[in-house]
Amino acid sequence: MRFSHADLKEYCRRVILAHGVYEEAAETVADMLLDAELTGVSSHGVSRLAIYMERVDKGLVSKDSCPRILRESPSAVVIDAANSLGAVGAKFAMETCIRKARETGCCFAAVNNSNHFGAAAYYTRMAARENMIGFCCTNLTAKIAPYGAAEPFMGTDPISVAVPSDDCPVVLDMTPSVVALGKLILAQKLGKEIPVGWALDQEGRPTTDPAAGRAGSLIPIGGPKGSGLALIVEVLCGILTGAGTATHLHDLYKFDAPQGVGHFLGAIDVSAFMDVEAFRAGVSAMRKEIKDLRRAEGFSEVLLPGERSARSAAGKAAEGIEVPELVCAELAALGKPFGLTLRT
Amino acid sequence: MRFSHADLKEYCRRVILAHGVYEEAAETVADMLLDAELTGVSSHGVSRLAIYMERVDKGLVSKDSCPRILRESPSAVVIDAANSLGAVGAKFAMETCIRKARETGCCFAAVNNSNHFGAAAYYTRMAARENMIGFCCTNLTAKIAPYGAAEPFMGTDPISVAVPSDDCPVVLDMTPSVVALGKLILAQKLGKEIPVGWALDQEGRPTTDPAAGRAGSLIPIGGPKGSGLALIVEVLCGILTGAGTATHLHDLYKFDAPQGVGHFLGAIDVSAFMDVEAFRAGVSAMRKEIKDLRRAEGFSEVLLPGERSARSAAGKAAEGIEVPELVCAELAALGKPFGLTLRT
User: Among candidates A285, A302, A271, A273, which has minimal Cα distance to A167?
Assistant: First the structure.
């Protein structure tokens, strides 16, 4: 089924409200989910609404608490997300960073007591829209083994950086593993082998069996390099926030306890370093230089980080968002008890 | 030949002074080179003294100019390195960040008009010693092709992050390419093939020929992920500093112009976020958890970033630094015209 962005967002917002979440939080979460749909990251889009609401219904995520600042200096802030829906604390943190960076040049926020926040690029693009360089990462339950280990220790922790430009912002949003866990789940469903280099089995041996990989661990990019990057994210999100590193967190799909996730976000104000127009023009000039490079074998175009997302968003804003039947059924079921009807 | 750390540093310092560089700069560069030797990164150690001095002698690096602050806000600073030896501007930048971060919680510095600064970890460890999380990157002449391109655009730009702890600090220092260019140079010298996945030839095809790889480009870790990371470093070091991105820089080993390199450094003060003792204990506890993980096939130990360097430094401080004959001859030649003698 195909929906307009506005209609689908409004439906999600009403569903979240109906589940007892307060107005501003419902708007934030609906906007974040639809932004993921627009930018082509549907794995973090409306298909997540069901699990978010299930956790709210079970009392594992608070429906009424607001994030609050625990500690503050001119360019640093610690935020207790108060177990609100992940997007609520992360958005509040980035808004705070942007406001303070405008005064001092940059600001970073450590967020604890939070939950799954969707796609990290949602928050870094907030900064880019304000002519700042946005930085965001979060930790998640452990899936990646440190280089040399046979057990997971770090989450598939996303790292996002967004950079303003005169045309399409440069938006990096990556996990430090070679592939996301979803690729192993899909291969297992399809009965296919996975390539060597994606995962290790429980003994720390390379495996082509997706089930063995799921029971084992994901391999970081570049061996010790991706492993080190993931470890730094764990330090920032798990230790500096007080939230705890990945192995101490709770899974989004298990109902034993609040997730207790930590985020680390920041904004660097371009205007503290140079003329904003010159910076934006410089990034656009770099983009053009890269687009003009000779292409590698098998590539019809060199894509910069964020370019695919921007195109997806332009297309879907015009033509609507296609949602698979299964997800539509889920969405409809979430609204039905409250008399809400999902309409295309 | 084997030298004590103090003797070798003093010899380097005297050589730099003899070449007309001022006292404080000579001390900084000698300390940085010896730190690289101690931490086992001899590719960035005393073997670089000859090229540094050659550039000074040719007037391509200034022997007497001091870095100066061009623009300053509470948590951001822009520094003109004034074409001084790279370590001089980078050290000044990190000292400035540390001083300002103590007031505001964090500070970042954009440095332009600089030169090759050695190992990035030298600067991030300065922050870690002050109970701050240090961040440092620099750009270099273009060697890495963006994902999908057949020509280099980004340098093998190092990214370093250092984290204080109760025992060994966590120190990441990585380039976003699968291997450093040095590995291709070595393979070519030895007449060996390189594995697929290290480099592309000039047409952007995977190659096993080190010469073709050197003429082509290095492959980033994780495809679009490492490519994106390198691109962000180019934005920070090349655009936000005003220095220019990699393809606009000049090579350390060519004598056509000053290098014009940019650096981007920062310090995040742990005490702005939480109790420093608790943070340091938390990082050490994480280290212990990781050391206790089951090991992957073929590994006798799980090493954290920075652990090998710390062990090397402890060993070499006690037993001395071994320098290959060829490098000793180079070092001796640098001092000879000034009546300086290299002694073990």
Answer: A285
Q: Is A146 an interface residue toward B (CB < 8 Å)? A: yes
Taking the Cβ of residue B180 and every Cβ of chain A, the question of whether any pair is shorter than 8 Å is answered with no
Among B28, B22, B100, B99, smallest CA distance to B62 is for B22
CA–CA distance from B285 to each of A89, B278, B280, B292 (Å)? Answer: 27, 10, 9, 11
Closest chain A C-alpha to B177 CA, distance in angstroms: 8
Angle, to 10 degrees, between the axis of helix B325-335 and the axis of helix B49-57?
A: 30
Please work out, in degrees rounded to the nearest 5, the angle formed at the alpha carbon of residue B126 by the alpha carbons of B123 and B127.
Answer: 105
Average pLDDT over chain A reads: 97
| Separation between Cα atoms, residue B270 and residue B283, nearest integer Å | 12
The CA distance from A330 to A323, in Å, is 11
In chain A, residues with a C-beta closer than 8 Å to the C-beta of B245 are: 286, 289
Q: Tell whether A12 is within 8 A of chain B (Cβ).
A: no
CA distance A277 to A315: 28
Flag whether residue A157 sits within 8 Å of chain B, measured between CB atoms.
no
| Distance (Å, whole) CA A234 – CA B125 | 19
d(CA A17, CA A58): 16
Question: Which of A110, A146, A297 is facing B205, going by the closest CB pair?
Answer: A297
Q: What are the backbone angles phi and psi of residue B263, rounded to the nearest 5°?
A: -125, 155
In chain B, what residues touch A235 (CB-CB under 8 Å)? 133, 163, 170, 283, 286
Residue range B282-299, pLDDT digits in tens: 999 999 999 999 999 999
Exposure string of B174-197, with b = 16+ CB inside 10 Å and e = fewer, is: bbbbbbebebbeebbeeeeebeee
Chain A, 18 to 57: residues with Cβ < 8 Å from chain B are none
Mean pLDDT, range B311-336, rounded to an integer: 96
Whether residue A295 and residue B247 make contact (CB cut-off 8 A), yes or no, is: no
Helix locations, chain B, DSSP H: 5-18, 23-38, 49-57, 86-104, 121-129, 181-190, 210-215, 224-234, 276-291, 307-319, 325-335
CA–CA gap between residue A178 and residue A156 (Å, rounded): 10
Helix (H, G, I), strand (E, B) or coil at B303: coil
- The tens digit of pLDDT for each residue in A282-291 reads 999 999 999 9
CA-nearest residue of chain A to B70? Answer: A273
pTM of the entire predicted model: 0.97
